[in-house]
Amino acid sequence: EKLRGEYYLIKAKSYQVQNNSQQCITQALKAEEILTRTNDSSGLMSCYIVKGNAYYRLLALTASAESYLQGMQLARKLGRTDAINAVTLNLGNIYAQQKDWSNANRYYHEALTQYKAENEPSMISYVYNNLGVIDEMTGKYKSALSKYNKALNIDIDSKDTLAISSDLCNISEVYSKTGKYAKALEGYRQSLL
To answer: Which residues contact residue 136 at a Cβ distance below 8 angstroms, ignoring those fewer than 6 apart?
Structure first.
């Protein structure tokens, strides 16, 4: 029976890759039922994360968060830091979309700590940008600039030209919101180079 559960999980992942979220969820629910009966914690963890991804694509954010939280609970039990990192970041994204800034901030900071420990510069930059967005959306412009500049410095060190351009646009947007149009214009110009 465990093999049948794995079959449905792989089928769910296949639908996920095909961007067919409804079928992904259908297969994941079949897998979940079997993997629960067979006490397959690792399979269940994957199943919850796959369901969370599918619900996220359908913008069913509450269902997505619930699935991710179930997956994270098992990932912690199993010591699966790779899964914990991905789920933590996704939860931050969900709460940010829901404008639940407190929870978004909490999960982004948790993700930032994890990515710093693993020395993942592109992910550290990504999280700083997301934290900057929260600060910008809540009117904390000085803090937003600080976070965007941290992301910019990381991306300069990594020579990631696309990310540098995006960082400069974020910084310029804050300058324009604070009436510093000359700095905003200069940042936008630099972003095009």
So the answer is: 144, 170, 173, 174, 177
